[in-house]
Amino acid sequence: MELGNYFKILSRHKLTLIIIPLITIIITYFLVRHQPDIYTSEAQIATGIVDKSQQALSNNNNEAQQESQIAQNFDNLIEIMRSKKMLNQVSYQLMIHDLTSNEPFRKPSKLFTTMDGAARAHALAAYKDFYVKHKELSLYNQDQAGLHNLLTSMKYDDESLLKTLSIYRAQSSDFIDVDFSTDDSELAAFVVNTLTQEFITYYNTTIKENQHRAIGFLGNLLQSKRDTLNAKIIELRNYKIKNRILSLPEQSRALYSQLADFETHLEQAQREAIANQAAIKNIDDHFNPKDRKYFENAMVPVNQSIVNLTDQLKDLNQKYIQSDFNPAYKSRIDSLQQAINEKIMQSSDKYITSPLANQQALVTQRLSLQIAYELAKNGIGSIQNELKRLNTELDGIVPHEAVVQQDESNVDVAQKEFLEILNKYNQTSLDSNYIGQLKQVETAMPGIAEPSKKMLLVILSGIIMFVFCIIVFFFIYFFDTTIKTPGELANATGMPVLGYLNLLSNSGIDLRQLWTGPNTDHEIRQFRNLMQSIRYEVDTDLDHHKILLINSLVDGEGKTFLATNLAYAYSLVNKKVLLIDGNFHSPGITKSVKSNAYIEDYFNGSTTDLEAQAGNKITVLSNKGGDVSLFEVSNEENITSKLNELKADFDVIIIETSALNTLNKSKEWNTFADKIMTVFESDKKISNSQHADIKYLKSLDEKFIGWVLNVVHKFNPEEKEAVK
């Protein structure tokens, strides 16, 4: 599919491309010539969402807001302004103005003019009531439905206002612009200012009401949280007083410290006891029983004194442990220890050893170790008792610790909740005293009429219609599968195209005049050139053969016209031509030439001599019709014999047969043809049923020499190359 064909379609329909847009322009002009002028008014609202200077007392920190959140806030404000609730307030104000003013904004509608004085008074009172109460008209109520119809008739309803109302954020600024366009400048300014003021009043009032309700709610909640906190604090205080608790963490730390200290002393005392016991046993191993008995008897007075001092040291050591190792007891213990050591040294001054053995030093050492061992054992018992007492005290603290921790946790949670509610209460109280952020910074004024768009609409209508026609023709071209050029025929069938014949505008054509008369008409000259080109191609393919069969896929493709003109073309090159009308179904050649020689008679032997027409160069064999087939006229052997006789008498034999859709009536002739040529009319599609006939032609191999495209519309002769 070539784009050049598309431009050819446009060229053929150039008048359509001119007339239709021109008609559209004329219609548009008459439609818009009485269109009123348009006036636009604009107002601007500062929101305070982005501007930090308006957030000094507010907790809305712009830096913490994401761009998406800011955009959402603007969208919410814009949707509130566009809501039916806001637009109803404007509609009521417009109707109140027109009902009370001698100069209404718009020409009263038919419904408006039909109202009498009572109806007007009722409508005015109703609109004022609905305006004050911010109520919406109910279409289920007959009276309110009538008021709504009145609004609609004046085009003051919300849907009519929204058609030319534009509300948008000015780029990424802090401002919202409100535009309204109408045919009256005063009306445009009134709508914009009224909508802006109604929106600001509604929004600020709503915010204040919400803040006051929030303050009341937070105040009650704050008192409840304060009472809860006080109750938790009192409960914790009473429990500590009842159980004599000053500070459980300090008490616990003191007990753990004492336990660690006593465990250290216990470990030290146990090590000393074990060491002393082992040393005593080692000394005892150096004495025999007699020596030990002698030593013990000799040391009785000294030992008695040492025992008494040791008992005092044990009592004092126990008090020292029970006092958590008070340093005051330490000095007294050291004094008793010194006294014991003196007694031991006093005993060593006496001669108490046996003459046989001098072991005085061992005896003294054993006595010291024995005293140290007794003290260590006594200290272990005292330390263990103190450890038991401390663990008992610690076990008594643990239940109190759990209760106190739970109560302190409850107090902490209640305090946090109280402080959080207090912060919200303080901030809400601050916001409630802060002036509303929304304010109108630019008031709408009656403006001048905008430049007229009438001429622009007229021009656009013509351009749009012209483009629409171009698109329509493109769709026609794109989805058009008809064959228009030899190249398209060759591509569609996959078989060669011998040539094409142009369309002759004159329906009444004299073939004799066409081929023998002067060539003054361009179409005639082109047709003859194309016909001679086809004759040359056919003559080349025939070579030494003589019988050429011309058929088509369906009737009416131009077989008769082609066959007759091909015969004339051959006659001009001094060829003796026999033209046979083999189309029993529709004998076109017979009707146009009216020859007296019939093929039925020739095949049956009734006629033997054929008389030549057209200067003895063209001879025509007609048929008698009757819708018969060739083999019904004669048998194959006889037909072959007769055609061979004709080959001897003529240079070229051209046979026109019926269309291939007549089945055997056309195909029976193919048996006797040397070459076959098929005619196809341009601007026609190849149907699904015709694909089988094309496949049959392909099966004929070299016998089929190609197509001839007939009735072509203004095709460029240079484009016919490479179609074979």
Automatic annotation (TrEMBL):
Signal sequence segment: none
Highest taxon in the source lineage: Bacteria
UniProt keyword annotation of Transmembrane present: yes
Entry GO terms, CC: plasma membrane
Chain segments annotated as transmembrane: 15-32, 455-479
Residues covered by the Polysaccharide chain length determinant N-terminal domain: 2-94
Pfam families per UniProt: Wzz
GO MF term set: protein tyrosine kinase activity
Main subcellular localisation: membrane
Cell compartments where the protein resides: Cell membrane
Keywords, comma-separated and alphabetical: Cell membrane, Membrane, Transmembrane, Transmembrane helix
Lipid bilayer topology: Multi-pass membrane protein
The protein's name: Uncharacterized protein involved in exopolysaccharide biosynthesis
Record organism: Mucilaginibacter mallensis
Organismal lineage: Bacteria, Pseudomonadati, Bacteroidota, Sphingobacteriia, Sphingobacteriales
